[in-house]
Fold Small ribosomal subunit biogenesis GTPase RsgA.
Amino acid sequence: MAQGQIRKALSGYYYVFQDGELIQCRGRGVFRNRGESPLVGDIVDYTKEGESDGYIMKIHPRKNELIRPPIANIDQALLVFSVKEPDFNTILLDRFLVVLESFQVKPIICLTKMDLLTEATQQQLQNYVTQYKEIGYEIIETYKDDQTLLDRLKPILEGKTSVLAGQSGVGKSTLLNTLLPNLNLQTGVISQSLGRGKHTTRHVELIEVCGGLLADTPGFSSFDFDTIEKEELTSCFPEFARISEDCKFRGCLHMKEPKCAVKSALETGEIQSYRYEHYQQFLQEILDRKPRY
């Protein structure tokens, strides 16, 4: 029995990486019987059948797992957001941040198209950058033909398993071109090589980049809160989580409860009003969700 990591899943096969080679494996029936499914990113035990085929025998415990895309043991997510065309969108960013916080995946915000800002919009954006940094988020700002980007990204990606996420049109493909210069592919071809082409089976694959692993993630452009309970939402807003320890009531939802430390912090400007509005909106979505049985 050998141990390796699933780097790709496609058409019922799992490609397990060990010692520089990929072994094409199938999952044992026992996983189906238990309702388990091996995921890209899983550390697994497998047995070889022949030179390059095998069977997955055991899935090691996961640090975390995402549902869409199905991928496990993620360290961080590069959230690619443009500041213009399309405009910077705090509510969409907060949706991403909340879901990643709920899965214990570290978000890194990567802002693209910074050179498209005017003087007036530059100031507004810098306010947002300052506020998100104060919450504790790491932010990378990128410009067109940014020669330093690869040098700045290398230490962030090294030794980590990362996912790349963001809406279409925000500059993800440009970022991929920077990270994978040896491919030097056009946008559409890059998408296809990572299983994103219109005519290819959608799959998730971890590729080696800058001494780490990176997945470009189909279906990762928007989020819902299916797996988050109302009591957990506070912990997905780091600045709320810190302050809520001073709320009078345990399990305070920061809506109508008296002596709520979060609402006090909102009044003093310690919490940004747009963050609180997004919290209220997300909480309502969770409350309106149909019960699961």
